[in-house]
Write a structure and sequence with these properties.
Layout lengths: L37 E5 L2 E4 L4 E4 L2 H4 L8 H11 L14 H12 L7 E6 L2 H16 L5 E5 L8 H6 L3 H4 L9 E4 L4 H7 L4 E6 L2 E2 L5 E2 L2 H14 L2 E5 L26 E4 L10 E6 H4 L15 H16 L2 H17 L4 E7 L2 E6 L4 H11 L1 E2 L1 E2 L4 E4 L7 H21 L1
Parallel strand pairs: 3-15, 5-6, 5-7, 7-10, 10-11
Antiparallel strand pairs: 1-2, 2-3, 4-12, 8-9, 11-12, 13-14, 14-17, 16-17
Helix pairs in contact: 2-10, 3-10, 11-13, 12-13
The chain binds pyridoxal-5'-phosphate (PLP).
């Protein structure tokens, strides 16, 4: 191994776990160098190698919605580990059907929604399934997927093509063709983009990575109508917003009511409370476009991941996670608005951004980490908060205290 000083990787040293700081980091530099190594988590708290405790307002970016090391999920995983880890999807395993049925009921707001589920390992893979389903449903010549600028749908080649952030495309060109982008929340522009080559419209209910921008009733009802008129699939990416976080089981449920719902819904992050699992739900008439052999996965839906997902969904239903998220969001909003330097909050439920004045969100996030609060700088003026739905009042108050003192300190220094 040669250390080339001119390489962009030079200096990307693994400071954590390498006290001498001499060895080259064995991890590819797709993320910036990490400044903390976490070794343990419990509820809304994390602990680093030195035993220092952190309040976690990020939850793995909307992943560990039931908190770290939830005993119910841990027990299900431990039991499954000594029962059956994996067989091929050529065979049935015990957890897939109950999870698919539970998701279908959540999507139908308590009643069966009449859809079917494909299990994947991640958000991007759930979205890949949706994109392939759109092509299969539309057929040759009717394959275009329209998504929004500032959206985020994943990092694989086609989910990157669907992602409406041109700066992320540039170095990977040429990307797969058949993707078109329109301004977020602009129905007129969307309508103009819907020619006879379009198979699907693909939107987030709240743009998470794009700055935490929620859709509106008018927008989603309009998209539903435009898609119905043209037999185009309305596909919703609930990877970040789904599963209780916004105060409803799925984000779209804030904007569509009655029998109006998307045709395809993808989810992942919170589904396994930290175990990697994703899912793509589609109404049965759309799902029928897939024939045996069209799509597959080795690991997707395997017993280990689905044991965690099954326990996660059972616990979420038992605690009424959507209602809990709405209550905690109100409490967190009050705590944030009481901080000098927080001018507003936005988002839906516990998928939230706090707009700051006079300080850079990314600088604040980095300083908060040093002071023992985990959150995410999302723009130059805002931080993103996606804490566990089970976060308690102590972890809200403690985090707010740290954030307030960091904002004050950063302001003083500038
Ligand atoms: C995180 C995210 C993805 C990608 O999920 P991965 O599991 O990282 O592949 C896709 N869509 C949205 C809205 C996300 O927030």
């Amino acid at each position: 191994m040669t250390a080339n000083a001119a390489s962009p990787n030079a200096g990307h040293l693994h400071a954590v776990g390498d006290p001498e700081g001499l060895a080259r980091c064995p991890i590819m530099p797709t993320y910036g160098p990490p400044s903390v190594e976490f070794v343990r988590g419990e509820g809304s708290y994390l602990f680093d190698r030195d035993g220092k405790r952190y309040v976690d307002w990020l939850a793995g970016i909307a992943v560990t919605s039931l908190g770290h090391s939830h005993p119910g999920v841990a027990e299900a995983i431990a039991k499954q580990a000594t029962t059956l880890l994996h067989v091929s999807n050529l065979f049935a395993t015990e957890h897939q059907a109950p999870i698919a049925t539970a998701l279908d009921r959540m999507i139908g707001d308590g009643e069966p929604a009449g859809g079917q589920v494909f299990f994947a390992n991640s958000g991007a893979e759930a979205n890949e399934a949706a994109l392939k389903l759109a092509r299969r449903y539309g057929g040759h010549g009717r394959h275009v997927v329209v998504s929004a600028f500032q959206s985020f749908h994943g990092r694989t080649m086609s989910t990157l093509a669907a992602t409406g952030q041109p700066a992320k495309w540039e170095v990977f060109q040429p990307l797969p063709e058949g993707f078109r982008h329109v301004a977020w929340a602009d129905l007129d522009e969307l309508e103009k983009a819907l020619d006879e080559t379009v198979a699907a419209v693909f939107l987030e209910p709240v743009q998470g990575e794009g700055g935490v921008n929620a859709a509106t009733i008018e927008y989603f009802e309009g998209v539903r109508r435009l898609c119905d008129e043209r037999d185009i699939l309305f596909m919703v990416d609930e990877v970040q917003a789904g599963l209780g976080r916004t105060g409803k089981w799925f984000g779209f449920q804030h904007f569509l009511s009655g029998d109006a719902r998307p045709d395809v819904i993808t989810m992942a992050k919170a589904l396994g409370n930290g175990m990697p699992i994703g899912a793509c739900w589609a109404k049965a008439s759309a799902a029928a476009a897939f024939k045996p052999g069209d799509h597959a996965t080795t690991f997707g839906g395997q017993p280990m991941a689905t044991s965690a997902a099954r326990a996660t969904l059972e616990i979420m239903e038992a605690i009424d996670a959507p209602a809990m998220a709405a209550a905690k969001a109100a409490e967190l909003t009050d705590a944030l608005m009481a901080i000098d330097g927080v001018v507003s909050t936005r988002g839906l439920g516990l998928l939230m951004a706090a707009e700051l004045s006079g300080v850079d969100g990314r600088v604040v996030a980095a300083r908060c980490l040093q002071e023992g609060l985990v959150l995410n700088g999302i723009t130059e003026t805002a931080v993103r908060l996606t804490p566990a739905i089970t976060i308690d009042s102590d972890a809200i108050a403690e985090g707010a205290q740290i954030l307030a003192s960091v904002i004050a300190a950063v302001r003083d220094e500038s």
